[in-house]
Design brief:
The chain is an alpha/beta fold and 389 residues long. 41% of the residues lie in helices and 11% in strands. The chain has 13 helices and 10 strands. Strand 1, helix 7 and strand 2 form a beta-alpha-beta unit. Helix 2 packs across helix 3. The radius of gyration is 22 Å and the shape is globular.
Length: 389
């Protein structure tokens, strides 16, 4: 019996169903197909290069809008009411309705598979996307342009290029999963008057658009690598306060709210694990190699000669000293904020998706193209570095 020819509509439907439901089993149920039949169609659609439409589920969008309305109501209440109600647990449990339970580092980041050779665990570092900001090429001698359409294309290209490099240009390209770091300043925000006047959209439509794109990024990485671990920290641009706060920093951040809704979106997908601390730093390890993730806005200073390295290295020294006193030492610090790609043995500073802008041009900063860091943590190399070989 000959295999029926699938139409373009049928192939697009299987891709969209997986993007919406998150698992093959649920997607097959949605389309009322046998699981084997659905899997076969999905493989054909992927082979032919079909891409999911980047659209979040409508019910999730409704919850996000409702949560924003609820937050506004809470902000208008008395200070005493805010102190009693607007806590991390209240938002996560009552508004977003996340399940209880603390983050557990998945086993594939702890134990290596001794039965086969593999390249290690790759990390893709996404930070400083400044979603919603517009960079006018006419104001910076035409060296860059940025808006939400360009941002969507760059995010897709980032993921596709990462997959291509890891699968086609690395020896023993077997991976137990991938770490997808979200390092803050994911939205442009309204922290300056010029941003309020020039951003492409208001903050909530911007968050919704970014939610859809990050949902696609996470789905795609999970489909390609099997497992995704996502440590997250908030930046300084996503805040809804005049100044960045030390107390309750995350609970006034649209970055943090975005991460919580992404965690809710994928809570039934066992392949995907989020690590969203309540404080400014995220601490985790890969095969015993300890990482500390922070946004980097705590480090201030620098000049035209030493640039960002001075405050970053001083800040790293202080964090290492503090963490060693509380038995939370680390080998490598990860940060964004500075929009410069700097990769050293003890720290990795991420670039930005936005790239060069009017602020950098006006202040005569060196040109930085839009770029994001990626590297691989290997268990043997990590062990050698810890013992000083």
């Amino acid at each position: 019996m000959s295999t029926p020819i699938l139409t373009n509509k049928q192939l697009q439907e299987v891709i969209d169903a997986f993007n919406k439901m998150g698992t093959k089993t649920e997607a097959a149920k949605l389309l009322r197909l046998n699981l084997n039949t659905y899997s076969s169609r999905l493989n054909k659609a992927i082979q032919k290069g079909y891409k999911a439409n980047i659209k979040p589920e409508e019910d999730t969008l409704d919850r996000l809008k409702e949560a924003n309305d609820r937050i506004r109501q809470l902000e208008s209440a008395s200070n005493q009411h805010l102190e009693e109600q607007l806590t991390a647990e209240y938002i996560k449990k009552k508004i977003i309705k996340l399940r209880d339970g603390k983050t557990t580092i998945p086993n594939w980041l702890i134990r290596k598979n001794e039965k086969k050779k593999f390249a290690g665990v790759p990390t893709l570092f996404a930070s400083d996307w400044h979603w919603g900001e517009i960079v006018d090429p006419n104001q910076i001698n035409g060296v860059n342009e940025y808006n939400m359409t360009i941002a969507q294309n760059r995010a897709r290209t980032m993921v596709e290029k990462a997959i291509d490099l890891l699968q086609n240009y690395v020896a023993n390209a077997n991976y137990p999963g991938i770490v997808f770091v979200l390092g803050g300043d994911m939205v442009s925000g309204d922290i300056h008057e010029e941003l309020m006047a020039t951003n492409e959209k208001e903050i909530m439509p911007t968050v919704l658009d970014l939610f859809a794109v990050l949902s696609w990024c996470i789905h795609t990485l999970a489909n390609e690598f099997g497992n995704v671990f996502i440590p997250c920290v908030s930046g300084n641009h996503g805040r809804n306060t005049h100044k960045i706060r030390n107390k309750g920093r995350n609970f006034t951040s649209f970055d943090w709210l975005l991460y919580q809704f992404l965690a809710k979106r994928f809570e039934n997908d066992s392949r995907i694990t989020f690590h969203i601390p309540d404080g400014p730093d995220a601490y985790y390890s890969i095969f015993g190699h300890k990482y500390l993730l922070t946004h980097g806005d705590q480090f201030r200073g620098g000049d035209g000669v030493i640039g960002a390295l001075g405050p970053i290295i001083r800040g790293d020294h202080r964090k290492r000293s503090r963490n060693s006193q509380i038995d939370m030492g680390y080998e490598t610090m990860l940060l964004g904020h500075w929009h410069q790609l700097i990769q050293l043995e003890r720290l990795i500073v991420n670039g930005s998706l936005k790239g060069y802008d009017e602020y950098a041009y006006s202040n005569n900063f060196g040109f930085e193209p839009p770029r994001q860091a990626m590297w691989i943590t290997h268990p043997e190399r990590s062990e050698e570095r810890r013992v000083g070989k």
